[in-house]
Amino acid sequence: MIELLVKDRCTQCNACVAVCPSNVFDAVPGSFPVIARQSDCQTCYMCEMYCNADALFVGSNCENPEPVDEAEVLASGQLGRIRRDSGWGEWAEDPRYQNQMWYMGEVFKRARAFE
Question: What is the CATH number of the domain that holds 47?
Answer without folding.
Answer: 3.30.70.20
